[in-house]
Amino acid sequence: MAYEYEIMVVGAGPAGLSTAASIVRQDYRVVIFDSGEYRNALSKHMHTLPTWDHQDPAAFREAAVKDFARYGSVSIENVQVESIKKREDGLFEASAGGKSWTAQKVVLATGVEDVFPDIPGYAECWVSGIFHCLYCHGWEEKGSESAGMLAEGDTGNVVVALHFARQGLRMAKQITLYTNGNETLARDLKDALEAAPAPMSVNSKKIQKLVKASERASVTLEFSDGTSTTEAFLAHKPKTKLRGDLAQQLGCEVSPMNLIVVNPPFNQTTVKGVFAAGDCSTPMHTVTGALNSGTCAGGGAPLQIQAEVYKQRAIF
């Protein structure tokens, strides 16, 4: 069977780059498809990553690509893969813009997309004033008098809302939990706080609009009753969905959480020869987690190839 690459990696964020960084160490040819779409595209700083604290994610990606130069076995294709399939001869074929590429194995590192709630102004405040992770963002606002926690969607229950609010108290003296008109949740939160007091309050008013204030990460909440308030920042994790449908095209199982099902430690999916790494395969959406899962998938794909060459059983 003729093929151009041993392994193709779809996605050039931290997971995809980490995957390729493992593959090249076993001297395999790898092509990375970079769509130019990154979940942290609006972020100007990365955190929790040793040696790269408070630095630009774009610079991180550029540095990672430069590291591949000495190997001479990595190709970068700046395209959005449109279709992918497993052919009858066992090879995988990816296509984009009328061009096709073939490989023995595939690693999906396509990431996820955030699905914003239907609140006017939310998108304009995203990253600059609305933080989905208070390890990634928030420390820079420490010492604030008051911050907000939007209890809606994935954070719209007592346990998760208080989980985020407690983190917020490391950065602000007071946290207000906003339920955006959900009176039932507001009552449940008030009951929880009466049973276990904390410097938190609950606001059940319907949010009409969010406005990014001029000061630092501040966000102004305008309510349907005509009142408004400004918080130092808002914490909220919106729902997410898989970026694209390549996993479905390949027949990979997708979980009820809308994540690609993988088998650790090497992160093979339910389709042999297809691996997944990063946000598309785990609910823990962090840069360091993506790097780790990329290393695992980038180790597993070569191991499977090696076992097949000698018709032996792979370690997984």
Automatic annotation (TrEMBL):
Belongs to the class-II pyridine nucleotide-disulfide oxidoreductase family. It comes from Periconia digitata. It comes from the Eukaryota. GO terms for molecular function: oxidoreductase activity. Pfam families: Pyr_redox_2. One of its GO terms (biological process) is cellular response to toxic substance. This is FAD/NAD(P)-binding domain-containing protein. Residues 5-292 form the FAD/NAD(P)-binding domain. Keywords: Flavoprotein, Oxidoreductase.
